[in-house]
TrEMBL record:
The keyword DNA-binding applies. The keyword Isomerase does not apply. Residues 1-62 form the HTH asnC-type domain. SMART domains: HTH_ASNC. SUPFAM superfamilies: Dimeric alpha+beta barrel, Winged helix' DNA-binding domain. InterPro entries: AsnC-type_HTH_dom (IPR000485), Dimeric_a/b-barrel (IPR011008), Tscrpt_reg_AsnC-like (IPR019888), Tscrpt_reg_AsnC/Lrp_C (IPR019887), WH-like_DNA-bd_sf (IPR036388), WH_DNA-bd_sf (IPR036390). Keywords: DNA-binding, Transcription, Transcription regulation. It comes from the Bacteria. It comes from Undibacterium cyanobacteriorum. This is Lrp/AsnC family transcriptional regulator.
Length: 159
């Protein structure tokens, strides 16, 4: 990857709906060269897809929580089966394996605190192999999901 690729990524993270012509103008390449590079980044899975950032609160999802989850290895040994099951829950919008006292960190959304409680009790804690669950409710989102720091990877170039 070179500075052109880094600039493509930087601009597409800021505006994924930008036309190829607009992108080409911003990175100072011809439209065919720009399109070739974008397609190569897509094929290499550097660009994994395009999506809209939706305001969860506008959809009535007023509660976001981080949930630490540990497995009960005595009860259940097939970790991948537990992962498959928790991946089916639409309330879980992110799941990461972590080091430390817990095995997973989940980012969970719900309509309200009662909805969060019902999800944890009636769904998540009913999955065979789930041991300890500890949730932390997000009080205020200071910096929501943002772009990756592309400029830290490549030399700064003109926009």
């Amino acid at each position: 990857m070179d500075n052109y690729d880094f600039n493509i990524l930087r601009h597409l993270q800021a505006d994924g709906r930008m036309s190829n012509l607009e992108l080409a103008e911003k990175i100072h390449l011809s439209p065919p060269q720009t399109l070739r590079r974008v397609r190569a980044l897509e094929e290499q899975q550097v660009i994994r897809g395009y999506s809209a950032r939706v305001d969860r609160e506008a959809l009535g999802l007023g509660v976001m929580a981080y949930v630490n989850l540990s497995l009960d290895r005595e009860q259940y040994r097939n970790v991948r089966e537990v992962e498959k099951k928790i991946m089916t829950f639409s309330e879980i919008i992110e799941c990461h394996t972590i080091s430390g006292d817990f095995d997973y960190l989940l980012k969970v959304v719900a309509n309200d605190l009662k909805g969060l409680s019902q999800f944890l009790t009636d769904k998540l804690m009913q999955v065979p192999g789930v041991g300890n669950v500890r949730s932390m409710v997000c009080m205020e989102e200071i910096k929501p999901v943002s772009s990756l720091p592309i400029m830290a990877l490549g030399q700064q170039s003109s926009s």
